[in-house]
Amino acid sequence: MARTKISEYDATAANNVDIDSINIAENCPPSGINNAIREVMAHLADFYAGTNGDLLPIVAGGTGANNATTARTNIGAAKSGVNSDITEITGLTTPLSFAQGGLGSTDLVTARANLGLGVSNNVEFQSIGIGTAASGTAGEIRATNNITAYYSDDRLKTKLGNIEDALDKVCSLNGFYYHANQTAVDLGYEIHKEVGVSAQEVNKVLPEVISPAPIDEQYMTVHYDRLVPLLIEAIKELKAEVDLLKGE
């Protein structure tokens, strides 16, 4: 058999007796050896260029192809589509975009901003868990420790006077048990027994502690913690009356 390309060479040296029909068997003429060497050199050139159908197979460390598309197919490296064998990507000079499954950034601050979670973003979550799992109940915040907010330091306040007629204002309020009515249920609240006050009653005597309800701004909600100053002044007024009666 005439060996016309490297892939046809035999691993057993004694079997390689013909290079492109040039006899290189034992006792061949010297000219045959010279010509055969030239043919081998030509075969090497074909092999290097990937021509003459002579390609280094995968088993020999090659790709079995002379173009990138076929090479990727042969070694199972997808240009696009599914490839579950990739475990790490290094050396990228451009961050992966959102469309590519990335964050479009190489630093955490920008990544958060790109996700809409930066310090200047307005973010909405269904529920939040701090130090614990989120409850899954819409609008609920759960925390395993104190929630610290706003300020109370005297050095940050210009006082405008104590709350007047605090006791009368407290007496105009009612503390009562209730559960969500159908309108509240339609807004997403569940029916269970609760205790509270009326925002309408509070609004008449202390409108500063009233805000639009987050569920729908046509409704009101009460900052219960801000009722404490009213209760303090009411207790002081009540004590003054008691002290007066004691004096009589």
What do these coordinates show?
A two-stranded antiparallel sheet has the order 1-2. By secondary structure, it is of the alpha+beta class. Among the domains are: 1-80, no CATH class; 159-247, no CATH class. The model has no long low-confidence stretch (mean pLDDT 87). It is built from seven helices and eight strands, in the order ββαααββαβαβαββα. The chain has helices spanning 30-49, 68-75, 108-114, 166-171, 182-186, 199-205, 228-247, and strands at residues 18-19, 22-23, 128-130, 141-143, 176-178, 194-196, 210-212, 220-222. A hairpin with a 2-residue loop joins strand 1 and strand 2. The chain is rod-shaped and about 145 Å long.
Tell me the layout of helices and strands:
Layout: E1 18-19, E2 22-23, H1 30-49, H2 68-75, H3 108-114, E3 128-130, E4 141-143, H4 166-171, E5 176-178, H5 182-186, E6 194-196, H6 199-205, E7 210-212, E8 220-222, H7 228-247
If you average the pLDDT, what whole number results?
87
**Helix/strand-derived class?**
alpha+beta
Residues in helix, %: 25-40%
Name the strands of the widest sheet in spatial order.
Answer: 1-2
Report the end-to-end length measured between terminal Cα atoms: 134 Å
What is the percentage of strand-forming residues? 5-15%
Shape: rod-shaped
Strands, count: 8
- What is the count of DSSP helices, taking H or I runs of 4+ residues? 7
The biggest beta sheet, please? 2 strands, antiparallel
Radius of gyration, in angstroms, nearest whole number: 43 Å
Low-confidence stretches: none
- The helix/strand order is EEHHHEEHEHEHEEH
